[in-house]
Design goal:
- The chain is mainly β and 488 residues long.
- It has one domain (11-487): Capsule assembly protein Wzi (Porin), CATH 2.40.160.130.
- It contains 4 helices and 27 strands.
- The protein has helices at residues 17-28, 43-52, 63-76, 257-264; strands at 11-12, 38-39, 41-42, 82-91, 108-117, 121-129, 139-140, 145-150, 153-158, 163-164, 183-188, 205-213, 224-235, 238-248, 285-295, 303-315, 318-334, 337-347, 378-379, 382-383, 393-403, 407-418, 438-450, 456-464, 468-470, 473-475, 478-487.
- Helix 1 (17-28) packs across helix 3 (63-76) and helix 2 packs across helix 3.
- InterPro entries: Caps_assemb_Wzi (IPR026950), Wzi_sf (IPR038636).
- This is Capsule assembly protein Wzi.
- It holds the Pfam family Caps_assemb_Wzi.
Protein backbone atom coordinates (compact mmCIF):
# COMPACT_ATOMS: atom_id res chain seq x y z
CA UNK A 1 0.00 0.00 0.00
CA UNK A 2 1.02 3.63 -0.43
CA UNK A 3 1.22 3.96 3.35
CA UNK A 4 -1.41 6.68 3.76
CA UNK A 5 -5.16 6.57 4.14
CA UNK A 6 -5.31 7.87 0.67
CA UNK A 7 -7.24 7.69 -2.56
CA UNK A 8 -6.05 10.75 -4.46
CA UNK A 9 -2.48 11.62 -5.56
CA UNK A 10 0.68 10.29 -3.85
CA UNK A 11 3.36 12.56 -5.32
CA UNK A 12 4.63 15.96 -4.17
CA UNK A 13 5.56 17.49 -7.50
CA UNK A 14 7.87 20.30 -8.59
CA UNK A 15 5.15 22.91 -9.12
CA UNK A 16 4.74 24.38 -5.61
CA UNK A 17 7.57 26.59 -4.32
CA UNK A 18 5.87 27.41 -1.01
CA UNK A 19 5.14 23.79 -0.14
CA UNK A 20 8.79 22.99 -0.76
CA UNK A 21 9.82 25.93 1.45
CA UNK A 22 7.66 24.48 4.24
CA UNK A 23 9.13 21.00 3.77
CA UNK A 24 12.69 22.39 3.81
CA UNK A 25 11.88 24.32 7.00
CA UNK A 26 10.59 21.19 8.75
CA UNK A 27 13.65 19.26 7.54
CA UNK A 28 15.88 22.02 8.95
CA UNK A 29 14.05 21.64 12.27
CA UNK A 30 14.62 17.88 12.25
CA UNK A 31 10.90 17.12 12.03
CA UNK A 32 11.13 15.59 8.55
CA UNK A 33 13.84 12.95 8.56
CA UNK A 34 13.43 11.36 5.14
CA UNK A 35 15.71 12.64 2.31
CA UNK A 36 14.05 15.56 0.49
CA UNK A 37 16.41 16.52 -2.35
CA UNK A 38 15.01 14.20 -5.05
CA UNK A 39 11.67 15.31 -6.50
CA UNK A 40 8.93 14.31 -6.85
CA UNK A 41 8.66 13.13 -3.26
CA UNK A 42 5.97 10.75 -2.08
CA UNK A 43 3.55 11.84 0.63
CA UNK A 44 3.79 8.59 2.60
CA UNK A 45 7.19 9.13 4.31
CA UNK A 46 6.50 12.85 4.82
CA UNK A 47 3.21 12.16 6.61
CA UNK A 48 4.85 9.37 8.58
CA UNK A 49 7.51 11.79 9.90
CA UNK A 50 4.85 14.38 10.73
CA UNK A 51 2.77 11.78 12.57
CA UNK A 52 5.79 10.73 14.62
CA UNK A 53 6.73 14.30 15.54
CA UNK A 54 6.16 15.82 18.97
CA UNK A 55 4.51 19.14 18.16
CA UNK A 56 5.45 20.53 21.58
CA UNK A 57 9.13 20.19 20.68
CA UNK A 58 8.71 22.39 17.58
CA UNK A 59 9.25 26.13 18.18
CA UNK A 60 5.87 27.81 18.37
CA UNK A 61 6.59 30.17 15.47
CA UNK A 62 6.79 27.13 13.16
CA UNK A 63 3.57 25.45 14.28
CA UNK A 64 1.76 27.05 11.35
CA UNK A 65 4.31 25.49 8.98
CA UNK A 66 3.86 22.06 10.54
CA UNK A 67 0.06 22.11 10.41
CA UNK A 68 0.01 23.61 6.91
CA UNK A 69 2.06 20.69 5.50
CA UNK A 70 0.00 18.20 7.52
CA UNK A 71 -3.28 19.65 6.22
CA UNK A 72 -1.96 19.72 2.64
CA UNK A 73 -0.82 16.11 2.84
CA UNK A 74 -4.13 14.92 4.22
CA UNK A 75 -6.02 16.89 1.59
CA UNK A 76 -3.85 15.59 -1.26
CA UNK A 77 -4.25 12.02 0.00
CA UNK A 78 -7.85 12.37 1.06
CA UNK A 79 -10.91 10.15 0.94
CA UNK A 80 -12.14 11.04 -2.55
CA UNK A 81 -11.31 8.46 -5.20
CA UNK A 82 -10.62 11.06 -7.89
CA UNK A 83 -10.50 14.78 -8.44
CA UNK A 84 -10.50 16.97 -11.54
CA UNK A 85 -8.54 20.20 -11.83
CA UNK A 86 -8.70 23.00 -14.39
CA UNK A 87 -5.89 25.54 -14.81
CA UNK A 88 -5.72 28.66 -16.99
CA UNK A 89 -2.62 30.83 -17.23
CA UNK A 90 -1.95 34.00 -19.21
CA UNK A 91 1.18 36.13 -19.39
CA UNK A 92 2.70 38.80 -21.59
CA UNK A 93 5.61 36.56 -22.48
CA UNK A 94 6.62 32.88 -22.32
CA UNK A 95 8.86 31.59 -19.54
CA UNK A 96 12.46 32.73 -20.12
CA UNK A 97 14.06 30.90 -17.19
CA UNK A 98 12.27 28.17 -15.21
CA UNK A 99 12.77 27.59 -11.51
CA UNK A 100 11.42 25.15 -8.94
CA UNK A 101 7.70 25.80 -8.50
CA UNK A 102 7.07 27.16 -12.00
CA UNK A 103 4.15 25.69 -13.86
CA UNK A 104 3.28 27.52 -17.10
CA UNK A 105 5.74 27.56 -19.99
CA UNK A 106 4.00 29.64 -22.67
CA UNK A 107 2.00 32.85 -22.91
CA UNK A 108 -1.36 31.12 -22.84
CA UNK A 109 -2.14 27.71 -21.43
CA UNK A 110 -5.25 25.75 -20.58
CA UNK A 111 -4.83 22.49 -18.65
CA UNK A 112 -7.16 19.88 -17.30
CA UNK A 113 -6.28 16.79 -15.32
CA UNK A 114 -7.98 13.93 -13.52
CA UNK A 115 -6.13 12.16 -10.71
CA UNK A 116 -6.90 9.29 -8.40
CA UNK A 117 -5.44 6.55 -6.28
CA UNK A 118 -6.36 3.15 -4.86
CA UNK A 119 -4.38 0.96 -2.48
CA UNK A 120 -1.92 -0.15 -5.17
CA UNK A 121 -2.42 2.16 -8.15
CA UNK A 122 -2.36 5.89 -8.88
CA UNK A 123 -2.93 7.86 -12.05
CA UNK A 124 -2.97 11.36 -13.43
CA UNK A 125 -4.26 12.12 -16.93
CA UNK A 126 -3.25 15.66 -17.85
CA UNK A 127 -3.67 17.58 -21.10
CA UNK A 128 -2.33 21.08 -21.73
CA UNK A 129 -3.22 23.28 -24.72
CA UNK A 130 -0.72 26.06 -25.44
CA UNK A 131 -1.55 28.04 -28.61
CA UNK A 132 1.53 29.51 -30.30
CA UNK A 133 3.93 27.73 -27.98
CA UNK A 134 7.61 28.57 -28.31
CA UNK A 135 8.61 25.08 -29.49
CA UNK A 136 5.49 24.40 -31.57
CA UNK A 137 4.23 21.76 -29.12
CA UNK A 138 0.72 23.16 -28.76
CA UNK A 139 -0.81 20.08 -27.14
CA UNK A 140 1.08 18.04 -24.57
CA UNK A 141 0.54 15.45 -21.86
CA UNK A 142 3.20 16.62 -19.40
CA UNK A 143 2.46 15.39 -15.89
CA UNK A 144 0.48 12.34 -16.97
CA UNK A 145 1.36 9.00 -15.40
CA UNK A 146 0.10 5.68 -14.16
CA UNK A 147 1.81 4.17 -11.10
CA UNK A 148 1.72 0.86 -9.28
CA UNK A 149 3.27 -0.13 -5.98
CA UNK A 150 4.91 -3.44 -5.21
CA UNK A 151 6.46 -3.88 -1.79
CA UNK A 152 8.35 -0.66 -1.11
CA UNK A 153 8.78 0.19 -4.78
CA UNK A 154 6.74 2.50 -7.02
CA UNK A 155 6.69 1.76 -10.76
CA UNK A 156 5.46 4.54 -13.06
CA UNK A 157 4.94 5.13 -16.76
CA UNK A 158 4.39 8.64 -18.05
CA UNK A 159 5.88 12.11 -18.32
CA UNK A 160 6.86 13.25 -14.82
CA UNK A 161 8.84 16.40 -14.03
CA UNK A 162 11.88 15.67 -11.86
CA UNK A 163 14.32 17.77 -9.86
CA UNK A 164 17.53 16.19 -8.55
CA UNK A 165 19.47 18.27 -6.05
CA UNK A 166 19.19 20.80 -3.23
CA UNK A 167 18.99 24.00 -5.31
CA UNK A 168 15.90 26.21 -5.54
CA UNK A 169 16.70 27.88 -8.87
CA UNK A 170 18.88 25.22 -10.45
CA UNK A 171 19.70 21.57 -10.66
CA UNK A 172 22.73 21.21 -12.88
CA UNK A 173 21.92 17.58 -13.73
CA UNK A 174 18.10 17.28 -13.91
CA UNK A 175 15.48 20.00 -13.43
CA UNK A 176 12.02 21.05 -14.59
CA UNK A 177 13.53 23.35 -17.24
CA UNK A 178 12.98 21.00 -20.20
CA UNK A 179 9.65 19.27 -20.69
CA UNK A 180 9.46 15.81 -19.12
CA UNK A 181 10.19 12.97 -21.52
CA UNK A 182 8.06 9.82 -21.92
CA UNK A 183 9.73 7.35 -19.56
CA UNK A 184 9.48 4.36 -17.24
CA UNK A 185 10.31 5.21 -13.61
CA UNK A 186 11.29 3.19 -10.56
CA UNK A 187 11.23 4.82 -7.13
CA UNK A 188 11.70 3.66 -3.54
CA UNK A 189 8.62 4.65 -1.54
CA UNK A 190 9.79 4.73 2.09
CA UNK A 191 13.41 5.54 3.01
CA UNK A 192 13.97 2.99 5.76
CA UNK A 193 17.56 2.24 6.68
CA UNK A 194 19.26 -1.05 5.95
CA UNK A 195 18.91 -3.50 8.83
CA UNK A 196 22.29 -5.12 8.27
CA UNK A 197 25.09 -3.53 10.37
CA UNK A 198 27.32 -3.41 7.28
CA UNK A 199 25.04 -0.85 5.59
CA UNK A 200 22.99 0.60 8.44
CA UNK A 201 25.40 3.57 8.68
CA UNK A 202 23.94 4.89 5.41
CA UNK A 203 20.76 5.82 7.27
CA UNK A 204 17.47 6.53 5.50
CA UNK A 205 17.95 6.21 1.73
CA UNK A 206 16.01 6.63 -1.47
CA UNK A 207 16.51 5.36 -5.00
CA UNK A 208 15.13 6.86 -8.21
CA UNK A 209 15.72 5.55 -11.71
CA UNK A 210 14.22 6.05 -15.14
CA UNK A 211 14.72 5.33 -18.81
CA UNK A 212 12.92 7.35 -21.44
CA UNK A 213 13.03 8.30 -25.09
CA UNK A 214 13.96 11.71 -26.45
CA UNK A 215 11.15 11.88 -29.01
CA UNK A 216 11.94 15.28 -30.53
CA UNK A 217 13.79 15.74 -33.84
CA UNK A 218 17.51 15.13 -33.22
CA UNK A 219 20.71 14.26 -35.04
CA UNK A 220 20.44 10.86 -33.29
CA UNK A 221 16.73 10.12 -33.37
CA UNK A 222 15.16 7.90 -30.71
CA UNK A 223 18.06 8.38 -28.32
CA UNK A 224 17.35 7.26 -24.76
CA UNK A 225 17.79 9.28 -21.58
CA UNK A 226 18.73 7.17 -18.57
CA UNK A 227 19.04 8.32 -14.96
CA UNK A 228 19.83 6.86 -11.54
CA UNK A 229 19.88 8.69 -8.21
CA UNK A 230 20.58 7.58 -4.63
CA UNK A 231 20.12 9.97 -1.70
CA UNK A 232 20.92 9.00 1.90
CA UNK A 233 21.43 10.49 5.36
CA UNK A 234 24.41 9.03 7.25
CA UNK A 235 23.82 11.75 9.88
CA UNK A 236 20.57 13.38 10.91
CA UNK A 237 22.01 16.70 9.74
CA UNK A 238 23.63 15.53 6.47
CA UNK A 239 22.04 14.40 3.21
CA UNK A 240 24.14 13.09 0.32
CA UNK A 241 22.94 12.71 -3.26
CA UNK A 242 24.70 10.62 -5.92
CA UNK A 243 23.32 11.23 -9.43
CA UNK A 244 24.03 9.96 -12.91
CA UNK A 245 22.26 10.56 -16.22
CA UNK A 246 23.22 9.59 -19.76
CA UNK A 247 22.09 9.84 -23.33
CA UNK A 248 22.39 6.39 -24.89
CA UNK A 249 21.46 4.48 -28.01
CA UNK A 250 19.29 5.79 -30.80
CA UNK A 251 19.43 5.33 -34.56
CA UNK A 252 22.84 4.09 -35.66
CA UNK A 253 24.19 3.80 -32.10
CA UNK A 254 24.93 0.62 -30.13
CA UNK A 255 22.09 -0.54 -27.88
CA UNK A 256 23.52 -3.82 -26.64
CA UNK A 257 23.56 -4.84 -22.99
CA UNK A 258 27.37 -4.52 -22.94
CA UNK A 259 27.10 -0.97 -24.29
CA UNK A 260 24.50 -0.11 -21.64
CA UNK A 261 26.68 -1.59 -18.88
CA UNK A 262 29.78 0.31 -20.08
CA UNK A 263 27.77 3.53 -20.09
CA UNK A 264 26.39 2.96 -16.58
CA UNK A 265 29.81 2.23 -15.03
CA UNK A 266 31.40 5.21 -16.79
CA UNK A 267 33.37 3.45 -19.55
CA UNK A 268 32.11 5.76 -22.29
CA UNK A 269 35.16 7.89 -23.03
CA UNK A 270 37.02 7.19 -26.23
CA UNK A 271 40.26 6.39 -24.39
CA UNK A 272 38.77 3.83 -21.96
CA UNK A 273 37.98 0.14 -22.09
CA UNK A 274 38.14 -1.20 -25.63
CA UNK A 275 37.17 2.13 -27.22
CA UNK A 276 39.28 4.09 -29.69
CA UNK A 277 39.35 7.86 -30.18
CA UNK A 278 39.85 7.22 -33.90
CA UNK A 279 36.52 5.38 -34.17
CA UNK A 280 33.53 6.50 -32.08
CA UNK A 281 31.07 4.05 -33.62
CA UNK A 282 31.02 1.97 -30.42
CA UNK A 283 31.16 4.81 -27.90
CA UNK A 284 28.13 4.04 -25.71
CA UNK A 285 26.80 7.41 -24.56
CA UNK A 286 27.00 10.92 -23.19
CA UNK A 287 26.98 10.91 -19.41
CA UNK A 288 26.74 13.40 -16.57
CA UNK A 289 27.51 12.45 -12.99
CA UNK A 290 27.00 14.54 -9.88
CA UNK A 291 27.30 14.71 -6.11
CA UNK A 292 25.34 17.04 -3.85
CA UNK A 293 25.59 17.65 -0.12
CA UNK A 294 23.04 19.28 2.17
CA UNK A 295 24.02 20.09 5.75
CA UNK A 296 21.38 21.26 8.22
CA UNK A 297 23.34 22.56 11.23
CA UNK A 298 21.63 22.95 14.58
CA UNK A 299 22.20 26.69 14.81
CA UNK A 300 20.15 29.40 16.50
CA UNK A 301 17.80 29.53 13.50
CA UNK A 302 16.88 26.61 11.23
CA UNK A 303 19.25 26.66 8.27
CA UNK A 304 20.98 24.62 5.62
CA UNK A 305 24.14 24.83 3.53
CA UNK A 306 24.32 22.95 0.25
CA UNK A 307 26.40 22.38 -2.84
CA UNK A 308 26.12 20.43 -6.05
CA UNK A 309 28.90 19.51 -8.45
CA UNK A 310 28.25 17.82 -11.77
CA UNK A 311 30.90 16.44 -14.10
CA UNK A 312 30.48 16.30 -17.84
CA UNK A 313 33.09 13.56 -17.92
CA UNK A 314 34.51 10.84 -15.70
CA UNK A 315 37.99 10.00 -14.50
CA UNK A 316 38.86 7.36 -11.92
CA UNK A 317 35.12 6.64 -11.40
CA UNK A 318 34.58 10.23 -10.20
CA UNK A 319 33.11 13.26 -12.03
CA UNK A 320 35.57 15.43 -13.96
CA UNK A 321 35.16 18.64 -15.97
CA UNK A 322 32.90 19.86 -13.17
CA UNK A 323 30.46 22.72 -12.76
CA UNK A 324 29.28 23.95 -9.37
CA UNK A 325 26.28 25.24 -7.44
CA UNK A 326 26.51 26.66 -3.90
CA UNK A 327 23.68 27.76 -1.65
CA UNK A 328 22.59 28.65 1.85
CA UNK A 329 19.18 29.25 3.38
CA UNK A 330 17.80 30.14 6.77
CA UNK A 331 14.40 30.38 8.36
CA UNK A 332 13.00 33.05 10.63
CA UNK A 333 9.64 34.23 11.93
CA UNK A 334 8.53 37.75 11.01
CA UNK A 335 5.33 38.91 12.73
CA UNK A 336 4.85 35.28 13.80
CA UNK A 337 4.82 34.08 10.17
CA UNK A 338 7.57 31.97 8.55
CA UNK A 339 10.14 33.62 6.28
CA UNK A 340 12.73 31.67 4.33
CA UNK A 341 15.79 33.39 2.82
CA UNK A 342 17.92 31.50 0.29
CA UNK A 343 21.11 32.64 -1.46
CA UNK A 344 22.33 30.60 -4.43
CA UNK A 345 25.24 30.80 -6.89
CA UNK A 346 25.57 28.67 -10.03
CA UNK A 347 28.35 28.52 -12.64
CA UNK A 348 27.88 26.14 -15.59
CA UNK A 349 31.36 26.52 -17.04
CA UNK A 350 33.51 23.48 -16.20
CA UNK A 351 36.92 23.15 -14.60
CA UNK A 352 39.57 20.47 -15.18
CA UNK A 353 41.78 19.57 -18.10
CA UNK A 354 41.00 19.23 -21.78
CA UNK A 355 41.15 16.08 -23.84
CA UNK A 356 44.14 17.23 -25.89
CA UNK A 357 47.48 17.44 -24.02
CA UNK A 358 49.23 20.77 -24.46
CA UNK A 359 46.12 22.64 -25.59
CA UNK A 360 44.65 25.29 -23.33
CA UNK A 361 41.28 24.30 -21.87
CA UNK A 362 38.82 27.14 -21.29
CA UNK A 363 35.98 25.10 -19.82
CA UNK A 364 33.44 26.71 -22.16
CA UNK A 365 31.07 24.95 -24.58
CA UNK A 366 31.47 21.65 -22.75
CA UNK A 367 28.88 20.86 -20.07
CA UNK A 368 25.77 20.16 -22.15
CA UNK A 369 27.48 19.57 -25.52
CA UNK A 370 28.53 16.33 -27.22
CA UNK A 371 30.22 15.39 -30.46
CA UNK A 372 27.89 12.48 -31.25
CA UNK A 373 24.61 13.63 -29.67
CA UNK A 374 24.99 17.03 -31.31
CA UNK A 375 21.78 18.54 -29.92
CA UNK A 376 23.51 18.12 -26.59
CA UNK A 377 21.91 17.56 -23.21
CA UNK A 378 18.71 19.30 -24.27
CA UNK A 379 15.13 18.40 -25.09
CA UNK A 380 12.74 20.40 -27.24
CA UNK A 381 15.07 23.38 -27.22
CA UNK A 382 15.77 23.61 -23.48
CA UNK A 383 18.54 22.33 -21.26
CA UNK A 384 17.64 19.21 -19.30
CA UNK A 385 19.87 20.52 -16.50
CA UNK A 386 20.25 24.12 -15.38
CA UNK A 387 17.84 26.66 -16.83
CA UNK A 388 20.76 29.00 -17.73
CA UNK A 389 22.34 26.30 -19.94
CA UNK A 390 26.09 26.20 -20.69
CA UNK A 391 28.75 28.70 -19.70
CA UNK A 392 26.51 30.91 -17.59
CA UNK A 393 26.53 32.39 -14.10
CA UNK A 394 23.61 33.29 -11.86
CA UNK A 395 23.51 34.69 -8.35
CA UNK A 396 20.08 34.83 -6.75
CA UNK A 397 18.38 35.79 -3.52
CA UNK A 398 15.00 34.17 -2.84
CA UNK A 399 12.54 35.12 -0.11
CA UNK A 400 9.34 33.20 0.61
CA UNK A 401 6.79 34.41 3.16
CA UNK A 402 3.41 32.97 4.12
CA UNK A 403 0.53 34.69 5.93
CA UNK A 404 -2.53 32.59 6.82
CA UNK A 405 -5.14 35.18 5.80
CA UNK A 406 -3.28 36.68 2.85
CA UNK A 407 -1.60 33.77 1.12
CA UNK A 408 1.98 33.06 0.09
CA UNK A 409 4.55 35.46 -1.34
CA UNK A 410 7.92 35.05 -3.02
CA UNK A 411 10.54 37.51 -4.22
CA UNK A 412 13.44 36.36 -6.41
CA UNK A 413 16.22 38.83 -7.23
CA UNK A 414 18.91 37.60 -9.64
CA UNK A 415 21.99 38.75 -11.48
CA UNK A 416 22.40 36.64 -14.61
CA UNK A 417 25.14 36.31 -17.20
CA UNK A 418 24.27 34.00 -20.08
CA UNK A 419 26.85 32.49 -22.45
CA UNK A 420 29.79 34.18 -20.71
CA UNK A 421 32.35 33.51 -23.45
CA UNK A 422 30.04 34.84 -26.16
CA UNK A 423 30.71 31.80 -28.34
CA UNK A 424 28.64 28.79 -29.25
CA UNK A 425 28.95 25.35 -30.75
CA UNK A 426 27.57 25.04 -34.23
CA UNK A 427 23.91 24.13 -34.58
CA UNK A 428 22.13 21.97 -33.62
CA UNK A 429 24.15 22.38 -30.40
CA UNK A 430 24.96 25.61 -28.64
CA UNK A 431 23.37 27.67 -25.91
CA UNK A 432 19.59 27.31 -25.96
CA UNK A 433 18.82 30.93 -25.01
CA UNK A 434 21.48 33.21 -26.51
CA UNK A 435 24.28 32.95 -29.09
CA UNK A 436 26.03 35.96 -27.55
CA UNK A 437 26.92 37.13 -24.06
CA UNK A 438 23.96 38.66 -22.20
CA UNK A 439 24.03 40.28 -18.76
CA UNK A 440 20.91 41.44 -16.94
CA UNK A 441 19.27 41.75 -13.56
CA UNK A 442 15.83 40.32 -12.90
CA UNK A 443 13.28 40.55 -10.09
CA UNK A 444 10.23 38.28 -9.93
CA UNK A 445 7.43 38.81 -7.40
CA UNK A 446 4.65 36.25 -6.93
CA UNK A 447 1.54 36.16 -4.77
CA UNK A 448 -0.39 32.92 -4.35
CA UNK A 449 -3.89 33.40 -2.92
CA UNK A 450 -6.24 30.49 -2.18
CA UNK A 451 -9.92 31.42 -2.09
CA UNK A 452 -12.58 29.43 -0.30
CA UNK A 453 -14.80 28.73 -3.30
CA UNK A 454 -13.10 30.01 -6.44
CA UNK A 455 -9.80 28.17 -6.53
CA UNK A 456 -6.24 29.41 -6.32
CA UNK A 457 -4.71 32.47 -8.00
CA UNK A 458 -1.03 33.23 -8.62
CA UNK A 459 -0.22 36.78 -9.66
CA UNK A 460 3.31 37.49 -10.92
CA UNK A 461 5.34 40.53 -11.94
CA UNK A 462 8.74 40.30 -13.64
CA UNK A 463 11.06 43.29 -13.93
CA UNK A 464 14.40 43.36 -15.77
CA UNK A 465 16.94 46.13 -16.12
CA UNK A 466 16.88 45.80 -19.91
CA UNK A 467 14.82 44.27 -22.71
CA UNK A 468 16.20 41.03 -24.15
CA UNK A 469 16.35 39.43 -27.58
CA UNK A 470 16.78 35.67 -27.28
CA UNK A 471 16.23 32.44 -29.20
CA UNK A 472 12.97 32.12 -27.27
CA UNK A 473 11.69 35.51 -28.42
CA UNK A 474 11.59 39.13 -27.27
CA UNK A 475 11.32 39.90 -23.56
CA UNK A 476 10.35 43.34 -22.22
CA UNK A 477 11.63 45.02 -19.10
CA UNK A 478 8.31 44.43 -17.32
CA UNK A 479 5.71 41.71 -17.71
CA UNK A 480 2.69 40.43 -15.82
CA UNK A 481 1.10 37.03 -15.47
CA UNK A 482 -1.83 35.30 -13.81
CA UNK A 483 -2.49 31.62 -13.13
CA UNK A 484 -5.85 30.30 -11.92
CA UNK A 485 -6.67 26.73 -10.94
CA UNK A 486 -9.66 25.05 -9.34
CA UNK A 487 -10.47 21.49 -8.25
CA UNK A 488 -13.74 19.55 -8.24
Amino acid sequence: MWGVLANSEPFIKTDNLWLRADIETLANLGVIKTPVTTWPLTWGPILKDLSNANVNSIPEQYHSTFFRVLRTGRRETGDDNTFTEFRISAAQEPQLLRYFGDNARDKREFSTRTSGMSNNFAWNLEVTLAPDSVDGDDKRFDGSYVSAIGGNWVFSLGQIEQWWGPGFQHSIILSNNAKPIPAVYLKRNYAESFETPLLSWIGPWTFNGFIGQLDDQRTINNAKLVGMSVAFKPLDSLEVGLRRTAQWGGEGRPETFDSFLDMMIGLDNCDEGGLSCDDNSNEPGNQLAGIDLTWRPNWIVPSRLYLQTVGEDEAGYAPSKKSFLYGASLNAAVFDNPLMVSLEYTDTKVDGDGNTPGEEFSGYNVLYEHGIYQHGYRYRGRSIGSTIDNDSIMTSLLLTYQIPDWGSFSLLSSQIELNVDGENNAQPGGHSISDSQVKFGEVIFKWNYLTQNFGSFIFSVTSRDEALTTKLGEFDTTSFGIDWSIRF
